[in-house]
Amino acid sequence: MPTSEDVYTELKQVFDPEIPVNIVDLGLIYDVKVQDSGVCNVTMTLTSQSCPEARTIPEVMKRRINALPGITGTEIQIVWEPAWSPQKISPEGRVQLGIEDEDE
After folding, report:
1. Which of 51, 60, 75, 82 has the smallest CB count inside 10 Å?
2. What are the boundaries of each domain within the chain?
């Protein structure tokens, strides 16, 4: 049975087409749980409620997750609280985008 870490690894292969950083490092994924039944539940957000990729990104996510052996289905819940902000970008994502930390 795949673990949450396995799912995160797959999700690091999914990119927002408008931003050259994967959705995990972009800070869009809030939670991943794999149930004993093989169903994967993902809680995520988007960079904005008017994101033009709001349908595409979850579809790509489902295809990647459902390809993992042992996954029987994927449910994605898009939430708006807490709202996404650039502070959610990981240190790796900041390097890719050339963003300096505010602490520096």
Report:
1. 82
2. 4-84
Tell me the average pLDDT of the chain.
Answer: 93
Per the listing, tokens 């890719």 go with 96
Q: How far apart are CA 40 and CA 76, in angstroms?
A: 8
Give which of 26, 40, 29, 27 is closest to 72, Cα–Cα. 40
What is the number of alpha carbons within 13 Å of residue 71 lying toward its C-beta?
24
- pLDDT at 99 (0 to 100): 86
Among the listed residues 21, 9, 8, 11, the one whose alpha carbon sits nearest the alpha carbon of residue 98 = 21
Q: Which fold has domain 4-84?
A: GMP Synthetase; Chain A, domain 3 (3.30.300)
